[in-house]
Amino acid sequence: MHFLTGKGTPLCKDVPFLKVRDIERLQTKEKEDAGTSAEHYIILMNGEKIPLVTADDSTTPDTALPLVSTQLSAHLPLYVAAGSSSLSSIPARADEPLFDREKAIEGLFPPSWVNDMHALLSRLEKPEDTFRNDIIRKIVRRMEDTPLSHDDLPDIADQTLRRLPLLKLKSVNGTEALISQMKKCLKNHEQYMNRQRKKSNRANIKISHKALMAAMNEEMEKLTPSVNVLNTLLVNCRRKRQEEARRSTSAIKHLRDYPALRINELLLCEFEAIIGLKVTELRNRWINALPSLMRFFSPKDSTWTNMTYNQQTVAVLVSTASHFKARFGQESRSRNIIEIFEEGSALPLTLPEADDPPRLIAIGSNTSPSLTVSIYIGGSSVFCGNSIEGLLYLQALYTVFNIPYAAEAKMALVFIGAVLLQKKFEKSYKKFQSVISALEELDLF
Hints:
Layout: E1 2-4, E2 23-29, E3 39-44, E4 49-51, E5 79-81, H1 101-106, H2 111-121, H3 129-142, H4 153-163, H5 174-207, H6 209-220, H7 227-236, H8 238-247, H9 251-257, H10 264-275, H11 279-297, H12 309-323, E6 338-341, H13 347-350, E7 360-363, E8 373-377, E9 380-385, H14 387-400, H15 410-421, H16 426-429, H17 433-442
Parallel strand pairs: 6-7
Antiparallel strand pairs: 1-5, 2-3, 3-4, 7-8, 8-9
Helix pairs in contact: 3-5, 4-5, 6-7, 10-14, 11-12, 12-15, 15-17
């Protein structure tokens, strides 16, 4: 079995291409059945295992398996042809070249192009900087069609100066100066291509936003929706969705338009993307802050040291609502961050009003280590779990859906947001002196 680069008959009509740096190693797996030939694979840098197909396999050329994933972008044609049954002629690692490097460098300077350059340069006593830069750009751009990389720039620069001596720069070491210019040119081109891709992505998202929403609804209707597919759809429509959230703060409408956000995992992913922090970090911040919060709200009570983190969380949320209570609206249920009803309470009596801002709802004892909290939006449950996870999910709901706080609970919720998000929440908490004073006394960040 041999790798053929640019020669030989391919096994498939549509032969894919592979960059050398994508290949990590080659692997041979011996068959257990006697008399059966071994299986050969290319192991890519991303861990993907691709089977190699030879002409003497039972698979016909027209139906042969592709040698590499079609998702890989590359320039080097890679074929496998009939021949030796061993892999002796195949490089064992990616750093052993599968192509003729010297020829690739020579290919950057077609004879006609170099001759034209010589003719033009010969008429100039000193090449102008703009003209010199244009030549460098053309050489660097031609590298895109080869497996050549930054590591090859010293040889490319040396070859350039040999072929185009008038290109030498005003420097003691023309080669080093030229390499520096080539690196800068490559970097500028990569940045330009990234900007173009971003513009293209934004245009595609704008054009196909309705299609993305339709695809999301279609996926959610399946018996087992794919979280990966839904996450991709949410990422692609994130910009538009966030614009809608700023214009309309109806969580009910957002959940109707973007039903994937009913999946807790995906809502938390959106939350992380917005705040630039992982939920695990917020959880750790909260747990680390609990001792200080318990001492702040109950300085004379040390029984909290025997409580679980979830029990402490319930106690802190109740105390926060009481400590930062507004001068009005105390008869309203929405003044609470968490509402706890007696064991045996009828569920309909515990449900918030359909248009109420979200809060935690629980039935049972506030000292129970296994107390379960729920969150409702529009009369439907969107979360059920322990108090710490419920608190994090509550913060995510307010952030992702841009839900305004109830006036009678605003300072309490701003305080909780400051404990979790710290400096990232400064724009919100700096408006309230009582919250600032509490944070200064706690000295959490």
